[in-house]
Amino acid sequence: MATGAAVDVVMPQMGVSVSEGTITKWLKSVGESVEADEPLLEISTDKVDTEVPSPGSGVVSEILVSEGETVAVGTLLARIGGDGSAAAPPAPAPVEEPAAPAAPAPPAPAPAAPEPAEAHNGHDRTFVSPVVARIAAEHGIDPAQVEGTGRGGRVTKKDIQAFIEASPPPEAEAPGAPPTPAPVPVAAAPAAPAELEPGERIEPMSAMRRGIAEHMRRSLDTAAHVTSAIEVEMARVVAARERRKHEFEHEYGVKLTYLAFVARATVETLREWPWVNAELRGASIVTRNHVNLGFAVALEGGKGLIVPVVKHAEGLNLLGMARAVADLAERARSKKLLPDDVQGGTFTITNPGGAGTLLGTPVISQPQSAILGTYAVVKRPWVIQDETGADAIAIRPIMNLTLTYDHRLVDGAYAGGFLRDLRARLESWSDDE
Amino acid sequence: VSEKTYLQAISDGLRLEMRHDPRVFVLGEDVGVYGGAFKVTLGFQEEFGEWRVLDMPLSETAILGGATGAAMMGMRPVAEMQFADFVSCGWDHIVTIAAKQRWRAGTPVPIVLRLPSGGGFSGGPFHSQNPESSFAHVPGLKCVCPATPEDAKGLLISAIEDPNPVLFFEHKHLYRRVKGEVPDERYTTPIGVARIHRPGEDVTVVTWGAMVYTATEAAAQLEDLSVEIVDLRSVLPWDKEAVLASVRKTSKVLVLHEDTLTGGFGAEIAATVAEEAFEDLDAPPRRLAAPDTPVPFAPALEQAFIPQVADVVAALRELAEY
Prior knowledge:
The complex is a heterodimer.
Chain A: E1 7-10, E2 20-26, E3 33-34, E4 39-44, E5 49-53, E6 58-63, E7 70-72, E8 76-80, H1 116-120, H2 130-139, H3 157-166, H4 207-222, E9 225-233, H5 235-252, H6 258-272, E10 279-281, E11 284-286, E12 293-295, E13 297-298, E14 305-306, E15 309-310, H7 318-333, E16 347-350, E17 370-385, E18 391-406, H8 412-427
Parallel strand pairs in A: 12-16, 16-17
Antiparallel strand pairs in A: 1-8, 2-4, 2-7, 3-6, 4-5, 6-8, 9-18, 10-11, 12-15, 13-14, 17-18
Helix pairs in contact in A: 2-3, 6-7, 6-8
Chain B: E1 2-5, H1 6-20, E2 24-28, H2 44-48, E3 53-55, H3 60-72, E4 76-80, H4 91-98, H5 101-105, E5 112-117, H6 132-136, E6 142-144, H7 149-161, E7 166-171, E8 179-182, E9 195-198, E10 203-207, H8 211-221, E11 227-231, E12 234-236, H9 240-250, E13 253-260, H10 265-276, E14 286-290, H11 299-305, H12 309-321
Parallel strand pairs in B: 2-3, 2-4, 4-5, 5-7, 6-7, 10-11, 10-13, 13-14
Antiparallel strand pairs in B: 1-8, 6-12, 9-11
Helix pairs in contact in B: 1-7, 3-4, 8-12, 9-10
């Protein structure tokens, strides 16, 4: 059993651009024992949902941040072990912080707004009632910003309603510089209409949904989106897949998908068209000698979209690519992605074709400069030249590809060149690739 | 429409229903010659004869067993307990037979039990209780607890028409103290539908029976607070939707009843509010009820036992300030 000092559990740093996380579930409660590296809690950020492993072994002696709360990176979440932790009465969580406005003091309302970062970091707040929590979530308000008139400065339903009425609707809240999202998710969503029409249902956005909403809006506000499309005759890829899928499955346990072929060809093509794999950083253009290839994975039930990244994809052959994609997709769906898995992408492939769609205009994942869309492989009548050079119509598997690019950096001719070369690579696919 | 006391309204409803339906008859101790302990059936034997207004021996078991059997044979008995407290003698007939016969054998048991209940007049432990919670726990029964003369008449007629056993809790303290406009004709008030006794915005009081008036007086004293009073009128079935709608509006609720606290019907309401309106609550649901003791005789002790206006004022004040 644990002896010695208690181990602190803090909100982990989920990558450079993530400043806070929401506790979605505690997997252990106070008094339960936990092994080092055993999953202790689940957290959700605007980038990823993940389990947090326990940093040490012992009995969970304190849980300081409850489910549903959003706290800054580094905030103390729980303590594990420590001498006498088993005997110590479970301390009532919120009283711990010295700064707390304790009960005996005259009801000193929490200082209004000047230091939102201070007021936000968790357990120095008074109790938030269910209805206040719901209204706050619906309107994207941090209750700590509202002056409370209830007992001990508690924010009452009337307080938060008055706060909403007094503040103007948070329209088009300036997104700020892309790499540094505002630390406090205040008023991320437009205020929900107060009254529901008959038959309507209302629910708060998940952290992931809010993240997607913010990112998509910001991307459209940032990049000059243009989309070009090209048709690719996939006969050789289809044949290669038929030839090799059993081998992949039986020898390596990897499912061989069209995505692996497209990804492989894309990585090769990006070497020749570096601006498609580049980034505008201020007034400069940043190109690189590697491809960190993101690919969009839809979670079940429309719950969201996550973009895990295959790092250094230029070093992977078809098998390595297929394996990396399968591994990341599986971990994305089972919430086992690590923060690093979703960071650092330089180019993204999205595959809306799974449902049979033929064309789309995806949104670029910032700060990248382009995104490739892949669509359904469909048999079509296709004009070919027979051995005598005469035109003939044959049945061929055709796939549309789109490249949506940031016209600030990439021009149409450049994008077209990339698509043309990508098509050529796929149409002339050989197993040497 | 004429002004009637709560007692006159019950008497009026019973008389109209006996005229309306020849299957209806009353039975109880002293209901005939004497006109009932509280004179609800005064003059009934003269009008309807001694076979429809039966003076029964001093046996609640016989009254309730006889009523159950008569109902199974197609009659519509209205049995009176002199005091609701005595109904426990007939528990077996009500809970084991009347409540379950329809489920066991398909035979409806359309009895009405009139149960003069409630305290406030130093009646002591055997003549002051409000046992509605005990019966509200029994599937197959209905329990109504009217607060106004108009509801008392309309709910009694509904109870007699109802094919299920209905326990009609009439509050003794309201018999002659409460007057109100009551339509002269025959009408029904639906069982299981609450009534907004007083509309408000800030806090909800859910109550029934005599406590409706205690809550009303308390609300009148709280001038700066807008109190909504929901009169349940029936506790089985109870109007969950009306309570939830009010709580969703005010976000704060006090459940008030004259019966003792533990296992009282207020617990069911508070639990339902917590389960189904959790995200609308701005304060913990609160109960105010009698302490868990028998009802005392001594007036001072009885006052301390039954929730008083001042107690309701204090509870509402606390909720408002939460």
